[in-house]
Amino acid sequence: MKKKKVALITGITGQDGSYLAEFLLKKGYLVHGIKRKSSQFNTQLIENIYEDPSINNRKFFLHYGDMTDGLTITKIIKKVRPSEIYNLAAQSHVAVSFQNPEYISNVNSFGTLRILESIRLLGLENHSKFYQASTSEMFGDDKKKSLNEKSTFHPKSPYGISKLYSYWLTKVYRESYNIFAVNGILFNHESERRGETFITRKITKGLSEIVCGKRKCLYVGNLNSKRDWGHAEDYVKMQWLMLQQKNPKDYVIATGKQLSVKNFINKCSNYLGIKLNWHGKGLKEYGKIAKIKNENSFLKKGDVIIKVDKRYFRPNDVENLLGDPKKAVKELNWKPKISIDALIKRMINNDLKNIEIKKNV
Ligand code: NAP
Ligand code: GDP
What we know:
The chain is α/β, with parallel strands linked by helices. It is about 40% helix and about 20% strand. NADP nicotinamide-adenine-dinucleotide phosphate binds next to α1 and β5.
């Protein structure tokens, strides 16, 4: 009988971790995940898998651990002996990284070191393949061109730096110890499972609340920032594919298209039947309803529903990110299935559904 593949996912409770776990279970893997102890439930995104009787404790296993606790990480790897390790755990919020730089480095940088050293310590160099969740934030911005595997790095946040450390570490361990270790340099990817403080989810949730009369106005930061946004479900497949290649290589994963925060808001508003007009400049800029399909008691033409608030600006912002995924397109047959419009539709429908569910509870 063919032996089942065993995957270990750090960050299993997050957006990508939950999608990747579902993807690998469908492929027949035994999936182990590391979750942190928290005072409230932090397993909402994997509850469906955990509760599924065809999966639960026969194919899916959770271990308590923290990326700052090397001993436990080593113990888990020793027990699980994973054939594939996906290091997705991170303090992943750029703005927060300016406030907690030491902790971010401990988790995002030394967490990676703890895993790679465990692989060596346990003699698993030829057994465990390693995927590192690298990020476009390592590039900083380059106003002129789209970014690929050869572009130079110029991180602009403690988060970007912490990830750059792990990027190099992954390369160094690959070249020095022959570990199958790769970096997926992923551009922003979102979904209905995206954390609520990231801008796309903040917008889809905030606008959904506004049309349902749960909120009057949404406050945001830099409207001019541009991102290359894809859907997480498309991106986790690439994480897996990178570990199935003959040789370990790093890849940029992106859609090759970008949109500003303001245009993301416009698209979301349009989907909800609202046409916004923008007025003012800089910190005084605001979005006002110019036309609305279904005027109701909560919302009418002339209402100001978006305002800029300086609290959401960063000390240093990456304003322009556009990926060039040619290498992945050619070598991994990369083609995202979910367009930006489909992403918005899924996110808003999910946020509207959540509001409806809460109303009925
Ligand atoms: P996410 O939703 O924020 O998930 C992060 C995960 O890491 C959560 O499961 C979180 O646990 C866990 N974690 C945080 N600190 C930890 C610690 N000290 N010990 C153990 N686990 C810890 O992030 P994501 O969007 O899924 O992204 C996955 C990875 O890809 C991250 O490394 C991120 O930096 C990277 N990345 C993301 C993007 C993107 O656009 N989404 C782009 C490029 C790279 P809790 O649930 O307990 O908080
Ligand atoms: P990031 O690309 O990983 O930093 O993902 P985010 O979703 O946090 O931010 C994307 C861009 O949106 C950044 O350039 C932010 O400065 C910008 N932005 C504008 N307003 C906000 C806001 O209210 N919250 C967040 N998180 N970002 C905002």
